[in-house]
C-alpha cells in the first residue's frame, strides 16, 4: 500500500462514524449508508492524489466524503427508482426535533450519538452491539472485528447482517432515547465500550495488533460520547477509567509475562493519560452522582497517584470498594476488595474473607470459573507460606486462565514455590 | 408507524396455581392497561385466549382437511393472549410491552409486523 493510499484510508476511518451516522440519518437505511460510504472511499482514492497533490487530502475531508457519499446514494436510489419510498422511510425514522433533556448538538455530533444508541440497543444481542459499534462507528472492517474477537469472518459477517436486518425490520430508531429510558440506555452504551476496551486490554498478551487497537478505539468512542454527553457522570467515569487503565498498558506486560500492579515500573506509565484521567475523576466528584464506572476510575486514580506501590492509600481503596459493593454487591467486587484488605490488614485477614465469600455454594459456582479468584487465593497462600495449598490454587487458576501473559506469570510463581 | 404483536406466553399449569385474588388483581391491571392503550390511540386489537387444550389444528393442504385435537406446538408454554399496537418505533413498543408485562404478570414477546409493500 502506498503512503498516499494509507493516509486516505486513515482519514476515511477517522471520518467513518460521522459519515455513516449522517448518511443513516438522511437515508434511514444502514445498508445504503455503508454502500455510499464505500463508493466515496473509492472516489477519494481515485481523485484526492490528483486534486490535492500537496497533502493528498482535501482541506475538509469529512465534508468532501459526506457530499460525495450523499450524491452517490441519491444516484443509486434514483437508478433503483426507490427514492420516494426510501425517503419516506428515512423521514419516518428520523426525528429531527432537538431532544429536550440534552439540548442542541452540532448536527453531525447528534448523528453519531443517535447511531451509538442504535448500535447498542438492548433489543440486540450483546455481541451484536459490540460488532455493530465497531463496524459503523469505529469503521473497522468485518475481517478486523472477526480477528479481534477470534471468530470466523463469516460468523461475524452474519452477526452484523442479522443485527442490521433487525434494526430495519423491528424499527429500532435512530434517536437519542426518551429521558425516562436514558440512564439505562447510556449504561448499555458504556457496557459496550467497556467490553471493547477489555477485549483489547486483557488479551494484549497474544501479540495480535488489532486487539491492541480495540483499547484505542474504545477510548476514541468514549471521548466522543463524553463530548456529546458531558454532564453524564458515568460517561465521564468510564472515560477516566479507560484512560487510567490504558496509561499502565506498556508497564503491564514484560517479556510476555504479566506484571502485577505493585511490580510495575511506574516510570513507564503514561503521565499525560494519568493527568487527563485524574482531571476527569475530579470532574465526577464535583457532579456528586457516583456510579460504578466513576468509582472504578477513582480506585485507579488512587493507584496512579502513588509514586510507589508502598505509598498506595489502601484505606482509600477499601473505602471505594465498600462504596462500589453497595451499588454492585457481586462476588467479583468483594474479591477485589479482599485484595486491598490484604495490603491493609494482611494476607491472613484477606484469605479468611475470600474463603468466607466462597463458602456460599452459588458464589463459589461463579468464582470457581474465574481465574482471578484462584490467583488471588494462590498469592495470599504463598504469602502465608502455605506452599502446598498455594500450588493447588495456582493449578486451579491456570486451568481456567486463557491469557498468555497471565499464564506465564502464574506458571513462574507456581515454579518459585518452595 | 409500525404494528407490533405483543404476545404473552406462559405455562398453563402455572396459571392454574394462581390464587383467585391474584387473578382478580391481574384482570384489573390488564383492564387498566388496555384502557391506557386505547387512550394513547395505539390500540389495534387485543385479547386473551382460552387454554391451549381447546385448540384444533387444521391441515387443509390435502384433498380433505385433517383435524387434530390440541395445540400445534407440543410444549408446556403456550400463547395466552396478545396485543397488537401501532406505534412509532421499537422503543415505544418496548415501553408498552414492559407495562403490559407488569400488568399481566408474564413475559411479553415483541415482534414487528411486516411492512406493507410500498
From TrEMBL, chain A:
<dbReference type="InterPro" id="IPR014284">
    <property type="entry name" value="RNA_pol_sigma-70_dom"/>
</dbReference>
<feature type="domain" description="RNA polymerase sigma factor 70 region 4 type 2">
    <location>
        <begin position="116"/>
        <end position="167"/>
    </location>
</feature>
<dbReference type="GO" id="GO:0006352">
    <property type="term" value="P:DNA-templated transcription initiation"/>
</dbReference>
<keyword id="KW-0731">Sigma factor</keyword>
<dbReference type="InterPro" id="IPR007627">
    <property type="entry name" value="RNA_pol_sigma70_r2"/>
</dbReference>
<dbReference type="InterPro" id="IPR046531">
    <property type="entry name" value="DUF6596"/>
</dbReference>
<dbReference type="InterPro" id="IPR011990">
    <property type="entry name" value="TPR-like_helical_dom_sf"/>
</dbReference>
<dbReference type="InterPro" id="IPR013325">
    <property type="entry name" value="RNA_pol_sigma_r2"/>
</dbReference>
<dbReference type="Pfam" id="PF08281">
    <property type="entry name" value="Sigma70_r4_2"/>
</dbReference>
<dbReference type="Pfam" id="PF20239">
    <property type="entry name" value="DUF6596"/>
</dbReference>
<protein>
    <submittedName>
        <fullName>RNA polymerase sigma factor</fullName>
    </submittedName>
</protein>
<keyword id="KW-0804">Transcription</keyword>
<dbReference type="GO" id="GO:0016987">
    <property type="term" value="F:sigma factor activity"/>
</dbReference>
<comment type="similarity">
    <text>Belongs to the sigma-70 factor family. ECF subfamily.</text>
</comment>
<feature type="domain" description="DUF6596">
    <location>
        <begin position="185"/>
        <end position="283"/>
    </location>
</feature>
<dbReference type="InterPro" id="IPR013249">
    <property type="entry name" value="RNA_pol_sigma70_r4_t2"/>
</dbReference>
<keyword id="KW-0805">Transcription regulation</keyword>
<dbReference type="GO" id="GO:0003677">
    <property type="term" value="F:DNA binding"/>
</dbReference>
<dbReference type="InterPro" id="IPR013324">
    <property type="entry name" value="RNA_pol_sigma_r3/r4-like"/>
</dbReference>
<dbReference type="Pfam" id="PF04542">
    <property type="entry name" value="Sigma70_r2"/>
</dbReference>
<dbReference type="InterPro" id="IPR036388">
    <property type="entry name" value="WH-like_DNA-bd_sf"/>
</dbReference>
<feature type="domain" description="RNA polymerase sigma-70 region 2">
    <location>
        <begin position="14"/>
        <end position="81"/>
    </location>
</feature>
Automatic annotation (TrEMBL), chain B:
<dbReference type="Pfam" id="PF03795">
    <property type="entry name" value="YCII"/>
</dbReference>
<dbReference type="InterPro" id="IPR011008">
    <property type="entry name" value="Dimeric_a/b-barrel"/>
</dbReference>
<feature type="domain" description="YCII-related">
    <location>
        <begin position="4"/>
        <end position="112"/>
    </location>
</feature>
<dbReference type="InterPro" id="IPR005545">
    <property type="entry name" value="YCII"/>
</dbReference>
<comment type="similarity">
    <text>Belongs to the YciI family.</text>
</comment>
<protein>
    <recommendedName>
        <fullName>YCII-related domain-containing protein</fullName>
    </recommendedName>
</protein>
Amino acid at each position: 500500500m502506498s503512503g498516499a493510499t494509507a493516509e486516505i484510508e486513515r482519514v476515511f476511518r477517522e471520518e467513518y462514524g460521522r459519515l455513516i451516522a449522517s448518511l443513516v440519518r438522511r437515508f434511514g437505511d444502514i445498508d445504503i449508508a455503508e454502500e455510499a460510504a464505500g463508493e466515496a472511499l473509492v472516489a477519494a482514492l481515485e481523485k484526492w492524489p490528483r486534486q490535492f497533490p500537496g497533502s493528498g487530502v482535501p482541506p475538509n475531508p469529512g465534508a468532501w466524503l459526506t457530499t460525495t457519499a450523499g450524491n452517490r446514494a441519491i444516484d443509486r436510489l434514483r437508478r433503483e427508482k426507490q427514492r420516494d419510498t426510501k425517503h419516506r422511510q428515512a423521514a419516518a425514522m428520523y426525528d429531527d426535533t432537538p431532544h429536550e433533556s440534552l439540548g442542541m448538538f452540532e448536527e453531525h455530533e447528534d448523528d453519531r450519538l443517535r447511531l451509538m444508541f442504535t448500535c447498542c440497543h438492548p433489543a440486540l444481542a450483546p455481541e451484536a452491539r459490540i460488532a455493530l459499534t465497531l463496524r459503523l462507528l469505529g469503521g473497522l472492517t468485518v475481517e478486523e472485528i472477526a480477528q479481534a474477537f477470534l471468530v470466523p469472518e463469516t460468523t461475524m459477517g452474519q452477526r452484523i447482517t442479522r443485527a442490521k436486518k433487525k434494526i430495519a425490520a423491528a424499527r429500532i430508531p435512530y434517536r437519542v432515547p426518551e429521558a425516562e429510558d436514558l440512564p439505562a440506555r447510556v449504561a448499555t452504551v458504556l457496557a459496550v465500550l467497556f467490553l471493547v476496551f477489555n477485549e483489547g486490554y486483557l488479551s494484549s498478551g497474544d501479540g495480535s495488533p488489532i486487539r491492541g487497537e480495540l483499547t484505542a478505539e474504545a477510548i476514541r468512542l468514549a471521548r466522543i460520547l463524553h463530548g456529546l454527553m458531558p454532564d453524564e457522570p458515568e460517561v465521564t467515569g468510564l472515560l477516566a477509567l479507560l484512560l487510567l487503565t490504558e496509561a499502565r498498558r506498556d508497564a503491564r506486560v514484560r517479556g510476555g509475562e504479566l506484571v502485577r500492579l505493585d511490580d510495575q515500573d511506574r516510570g513507564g506509565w503514561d503521565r499525560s493519560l494519568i493527568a487527563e484521567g485524574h482531571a476527569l475523576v475530579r470532574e465526577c466528584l464535583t457532579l456528586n452522582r457516583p456510579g460504578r464506572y466513576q468509582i472504578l476510575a477513582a480506585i485507579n486514580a488512587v493507584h496512579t497517584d502513588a509514586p510507589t506501590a508502598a505509598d498506595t492509600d489502601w484505606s482509600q481503596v477499601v473505602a471505594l470498594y465498600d462504596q462500589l459493593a453497595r451499588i454492585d454487591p457481586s462476588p467479583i467486587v468483594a474479591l477485589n476488595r479482599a485484595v486491598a484488605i490484604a495490603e491493609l490488614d494482611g494476607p491472613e485477614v484477606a484469605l479468611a474473607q475470600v474463603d468466607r465469600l466462597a463458602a456460599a455454594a452459588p458464589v463459589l459456582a461463579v468464582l470457581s470459573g474465574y481465574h482471578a479468584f484462584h490467583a488471588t487465593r494462590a498469592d495470599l497462600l504463598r504469602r502465608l507460606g502455605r506452599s502446598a495449598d498455594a500450588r493447588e490454587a495456582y493449578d486451579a487458576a491456570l486451568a481456567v486462565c486463557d491469557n498468555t501473559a497471565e499464564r506465564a506469570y502464574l506458571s513462574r510463581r507456581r515454579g518459585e514455590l518452595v | 408507524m409500525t404494528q407490533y404483536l405483543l404476545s404473552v406466553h406462559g405455562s398453563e399449569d402455572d396459571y392454574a396455581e394462581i390464587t383467585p385474588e391474584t387473578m382478580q388483581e391481574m384482570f384489573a391491571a390488564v383492564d387498566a392497561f388496555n384502557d391506557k392503550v386505547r387512550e394513547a390511540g395505539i390500540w389495534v386489537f387485543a385479547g386473551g385466549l382460552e387454554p391451549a387444550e381447546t385448540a384444533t389444528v387444521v391441515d387443509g393442504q390435502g384433498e380433505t382437511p385433517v383435524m387434530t385435537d390440541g395445540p400445534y406446538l407440543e410444549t408446556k408454554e403456550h400463547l395466552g393472549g396478545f396485543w397488537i399496537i401501532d406505534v412509532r418505533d421499537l422503543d415505544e413498543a418496548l415501553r408498552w410491552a414492559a407495562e403490559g408485562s407488569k400488568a399481566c404478570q408474564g413475559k411479553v414477546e415483541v415482534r414487528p409486523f411486516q411492512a406493507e409493500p410500498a
